[in-house]
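Severity: low
Component: inverse-folding endpoint
Summary: output formatting inconsistent between runs
Steps to reproduce: submit the following structure tokens with default settings.
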């Protein structure tokens, strides 16, 4: 794929992103980030600045990523186990 610059807007601020992702994929990332930040803003009563909200959002996204990685690993192990059983029968 071809790398190109795409603008991404996070909380009203525009960032230039160099990526080979499709624009629709970048827009989905933009949506996830903005939604996560908005959810985190609701959790903090009086943030001293945006940093606390952004750190909480990053932690939330990292937790989601880690859960997905564990889920993927369990599925891969299950698939390998099924393949091994099939090979034993053949």
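Observed output (run 2 of 3):
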């Amino acid at each position: 794929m071809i790398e190109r610059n795409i603008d991404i807007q996070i909380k009203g601020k525009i960032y230039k992103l160099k990526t080979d992702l499709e624009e629709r994929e970048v827009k989905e990332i933009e949506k996830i980030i903005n939604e996560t930040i908005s959810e985190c803003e609701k959790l903090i009563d009086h943030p001293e600045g945006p940093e606390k909200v952004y750190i909480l959002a990053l932690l939330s996204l990292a937790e989601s990523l880690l859960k997905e990685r564990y889920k993927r690993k369990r599925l891969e192990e299950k698939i390998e186990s099924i393949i091994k059983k099939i090979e034993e029968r053949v």
